[in-house]
Amino acid sequence: MKKVAVATDNGNVSQHFGHCEGFTIYNMEGRNIVSKSFVSNPGHQPGFLPNYLNDIGVNTVIAGGMGGGAVQIFNQKKIEIITGAEGSTDDVIQKYLSSNLQHSGSICNQHKHKGECEGH
Question: Averaged over 48-52, what is the pLDDT?
Answer without folding.
Answer: 95
